[in-house]
Write a structure and sequence with these properties.
Blueprint lengths: L7 H10 L3 E8 L7 E8 L13 H5 L4 E2 L2 E2 H15 L6 H16 L1
Helix pairs in contact: 3-4
Length: 109
């Protein structure tokens, strides 16, 4: 099993430089014929100097910067869209409410 991105080594280095922990997991698809693949996660833990305590959703939605690897808003909206497309029966109230707040804010600005 291999990771399918030419950009991962560069992203991994950047992520680790800012204090994130990198973990590679095996992701098993819902349907066995689709198989499995490696999934790389970047986790900001409490010992990370950039870690922020959990904040109210209204604060979180108003503090989405642009990072070197893209607009942070995409890291929120893309999983919400994917969850609806791939698993329409699954409800994630936190993700969907944050998506609603961010989309509303984006449309206002």
């Amino acid at each position: 099993m291999r990771l399918h991105s030419q950009f991962l080594p560069r992203r991994r280095k950047k992520s680790e430089n800012i204090g994130n922990t990198t973990v590679i997991l095996t992701f098993y698809t819902r349907h066995l014929q689709e198989g499995q693949f490696a999934l790389e996660l970047y986790i900001g833990t409490e010992d990370n100097p950039n870690y922020i305590e959990p904040a109210p959703m209204e604060y979180t939605q108003s503090d989405l910067p642009i990072s070197p690897s893209g607009k942070i808003i995409d890291y929120l909206l893309n999983p919400a869209h994917a969850l609806r497309d791939l698993l329409p029966e699954v409800d994630d109230p936190y993700l969907f409410e944050l998506e609603r707040l961010v989309t509303t804010m984006k449309n206002v600005n």
